[in-house]
């Protein structure tokens, strides 16, 4: 709350002309410095949604608008490539990682959130899709497709409720041989939303409409087939070992839940997100160390279950204090 009140005070100082300064000066160094400080804090903890919202509000108040960093443009371009080459959930997860990195580098970049929301819906990560589409609406308050996006948010929220209740849901159609790319939101003149030429931002284009409509098939969740202890192989002191990634169990009430692994007496894990939808799953584990003040680490698994139910394949993302980010392909097996 104190940080939010600080932002309100800063916004007032940025937008109120002073007797000592000419009224025509719309941007001040203080706004840029505050934005930089907030971004640095967000990159230390990308899960801080309140701080992300504060950055969006601050960026919208600045005139001229903050420049999109080259790093964010690079991540947008790489996300575009992963979408074009995607042959399944693993490719989509790589694109998600790139668009998320762009949103962390330029947290006011509306198109990054839109692309994230569209891809996350495609792979069944409905909770994340809802959050990022809300960020998009906040970062682009005058978007022509705002009503459409709000309706999509409401539909996804209902989907999440159904999943948590264990009800049947409409399964998303399987990825085609050439997966549909993310659709960029339109401008008022009905042209695709694009960045200014000098920013060279890569935006995913609208795919052609298929001639033969695909009828969605209603099927039950495959959640029970995920149950078990899942491991991956890694080199430890020159020796290959099986390391537990997480466990999935059925609790006393019959609900499917995730269980964090044991790493040591000082490590304290917390499951922050756990979603299963039509053969795909996502789990987010946050770690802290009781012996090291300020230490944190976030592990995110975005995985697809093999047809025989013996393997989970997909992406593994690790973020930790100090700005270290790792993205790897992972194959997990059950024991």
Radius of gyration based on Cα positions? 22 Å
| Sheet with the most strands: spatial strand order | 5-4-3-10-9-8-7-6
Report the top-level CATH class of the largest domain.
Mainly Alpha
Q: What is the count of DSSP helices, taking H or I runs of 4+ residues?
A: 8
Describe the structure.
With 335 residues, the protein is an alpha+beta fold. It has two domains: 149 residues, Tetratricopeptide repeat domain (Serine Threonine Protein Phosphatase 5, Tetratricopeptide repeat, Alpha Horseshoe); 112 residues, Beta Barrel (Lipocalin). The longest helix is centred in the middle third of the chain and has 20 residues.
Quick rundown:
By secondary structure, the protein is of the alpha+beta class. It has helices spanning 2-15, 29-44, 49-61, 70-85, 89-105, 110-123, 126-139, 146-165, and strands at 169-170, 218-219, 228-236, 239-250, 256-259, 267-277, 280-289, 296-305, 311-320, 324-334.
Produce the secondary structure layout:
Blueprint lengths: L1 H14 L13 H16 L4 H13 L8 H16 L3 H17 L4 H14 L2 H14 L6 H20 L3 E2 L47 E2 L8 E9 L2 E12 L5 E4 L7 E11 L2 E10 L6 E10 L5 E10 L3 E11 L1
Antiparallel strand pairs: 1-2, 3-4, 3-10, 4-5, 6-7, 7-8, 8-9, 9-10
Top keywords for this entry?
335 residues; alpha+beta; Serine Threonine Protein Phosphatase 5, Tetratricopeptide repeat; Lipocalin; 2 domains; two-stranded antiparallel ribbon; 8 helices
